[in-house]
Amino acid sequence: MSDTTLVTLRDVRFAYGEREILQGVNLSVRRGQVVAIMGGSGCGKTTLLRLVGGQLRASSGSVSVGGRNLAHLSHAELYALRRRMGMLFQFGALFTDLSAFDNVAFPLREHTDLPSELVHDLVLMKLNAVGLRGAEHLKPAELSGGMARRVALARAVALDPMLIMYDEPFAGLDPISLGIIGQLIRRLNDALGASSIIVTHDVHESLDIVDYVYFVSNGRIVAEGTPDEIRVSTDPFVHQFVHAEADGPVPFHYPAPPFAERLFGQGVA
After folding, report:
1. How many CB atoms lie within 10 A of CB 1?
2. Which CATH class is domain 5-84+161-265?
3. If pLDDT is split at 50, 70 and 90, which confidence band does 105 have?
4. Which helix (H) or strand (E) covers residue 6, if one does?
5. Model pTM?
C-alpha cells in the first residue's frame, strides 16, 4: 500500500448557521485504504462525506482530495475532481425507471464520449464484478434489496474512481447480503487501486474489511485505530459502541430531574 495520502481533513469545522456540526476534525485516508467512520446518529458522519465530496464547504479548516484543497477549486475544477469519485448512497438510490444495465451505464453516458459498444462491454464487466450480469434487464422493483445495492455499487465504480464513498452501505440488508456487500467493497477497492470511506453503524462487518476506523461523537473524532486496536480498546465510548451496550458515555436515560422528585411533585405518596 502506498503511503501517499489521498484525503486530508485538517482542523475542519462546519456549522449550519449557529448550529455547529463538526468541531476541529482531523483525519486522513491513504491510497488503497478502506476507512470506516462510525458514531451515533446525528454525530456528523454524513456531513463529513459531503465535505469530502464537495457538496458542502467547511466553515474553517481545510479539506483536500488528491492534494487539492477543495476550497480553492473553481466550479469546473471541482466538477472534474468529483468525476473521479464514486458514491454509494444509502439504500442504493437507483433510478427506478431504468434497468440495472442503464443504471450502471448512466455515469458512463453522462461523463464520457465512449462509443456505445464500449459502454455496453464496460457495463457488463461491472455487473459481472458484482455477480449480476444476468440481471442486466431487470428494473429496481424486480431486484431484492441486496441485489439493488450491488447494482448501485457497480454504478458507483463505473468510472473507475480513485475514491469511493459509502453512506450506510449495510443498512436494511439480510446477513447474507450484508456479507456479500462487505466483501465486494473490499475486493473492488483493491482491484481498482482506489481508496474507500464507509460511513456505517455496522461495527462487526466493517471491522472485518477496513484498514482504519474513526469514531465521531458530538462533532469530534473521539477515538481512532486499526480494527485490532478497536476490538481491544478500553476507551469507554469505543467499548460501548463495539459491544452495543445500552448505557455508558452515551446514556440510556435522557436528562431528567430525579424520578422521586417528579413523583412527589405530582402529589404521589
Report:
1. 11
2. alpha beta
3. very high
4. strand 5-16
5. 0.84
